[in-house]
């Protein structure tokens, strides 16, 4: 089955991972900007990173027939530095018209601080003014519920937003309903040690249905599995779900959400 991974950090993966994903049926990946493993000290560091995301990673993915899309921002881990964040936000429009750029992300909260919230709101303002889609990171573990509520309060407080153009990622059982009830898209991230498992993601599909639900691997620097979406597909098949339902979650839903971005130009393998 063809699938799309809507949130995976391929700069932290080897080229062999692209080959493995292609063999498993992955036809496209969406890579949000995120933490480099250290806090970058200048706007030029982010400019170089955005160059990598928009110029080199699409080529590396293309070697294996995978289409690569990206999002741009300064992530929540580095948003405590408001002065630097504002420099980065001011620089982002230089890259928004590049092929494959889908919008602003992954923005959000890390420790739910005032500075993180300030930078989050300034990213939102940029996205609205440039008519970009938004991809959002919700905090980990004990900060998850509070951070998600804070994020939703900030989002719903901005009447300019089109909620169906916003993806709130890393949902779990205690936050997925909050996100869906407000009209946003929800992303389920499959991690081996935190966030969600394929089994729990299947449970959420069974409880809430497939509408506005995405599933991804994140595949970042820490313990993660870039082939987690095929694990979800297998779990859904074990439970006897129809192929049409599985395809909707892992292929059709990403197409529907990303298709709202002017930077999404997708060459469907089904048309080949």
TrEMBL record:
Pfam families: TatD_DNase (PF01026)
Presence of keyword tRNA-binding: no
Keyword Metal-binding: yes
Superkingdom, taxonomy of origin: Bacteria
Entry keyword set: Hydrolase, Metal-binding
GO MF annotation terms: hydrolase activity, acting on ester bonds; metal ion binding
Protein family: Belongs to the metallo-dependent hydrolases superfamily.
PANTHER family: HYDROLASE TATD
Stated name of the protein: Hydrolase
Organism: Lacipirellula parvula
């Amino acid at each position: 089955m063809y699938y799309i991974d809507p949130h995976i950090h391929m700069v932290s993966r080897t080229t062999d991972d692209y080959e493995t994903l292609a063999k498993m049926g992955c036809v496209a990946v969406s890579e949000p900007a995120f933490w480099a493993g250290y806090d970058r000290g200048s706007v030029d560091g982010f400019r170089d990173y955005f160059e990598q995301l928009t110029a080199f990673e699409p080529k590396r993915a293309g070697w294996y027939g995978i289409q690569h899309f990206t999002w741009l921002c300064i992530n929540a881990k580095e948003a405590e530095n408001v002065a630097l964040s504002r420099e980065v936000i001011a620089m982002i429009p230089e890259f928004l018209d590049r092929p494959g750029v889908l919008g602003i992300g992954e923005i959000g909260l890390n420790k739910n601080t005032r500075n993180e919230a300030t930078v989050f709101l300034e990213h939102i303002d940029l996205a609205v003014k440039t008519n970009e889609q938004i991809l959002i990171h919700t905090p980990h573990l004990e900060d998850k519920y509070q951070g998600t509520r804070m994020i939703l309060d900030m989002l719903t407080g901005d009447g300019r937003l089109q909620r169906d153009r916003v993806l709130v990622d890393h949902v779990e059982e205690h936050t997925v309903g909050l996100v869906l009830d407000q009209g946003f898209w929800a992303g389920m991230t499959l991690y081996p040690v935190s966030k969600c498992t394929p089994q729990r993601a299947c449970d959420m599909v069974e409880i809430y249905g497939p509408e506005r639900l995405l599933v991804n691997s994140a595949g970042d620097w820490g313990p993660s599995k870039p082939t987690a979406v095929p694990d979800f597909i297998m779990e859904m098949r074990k439970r006897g779900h129809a192929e049409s339902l599985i395809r909707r979650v892992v292929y059709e839903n990403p197409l529907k959400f990303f298709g709202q971005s002017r930077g999404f130009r997708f060459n469907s393998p089904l048309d080949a």
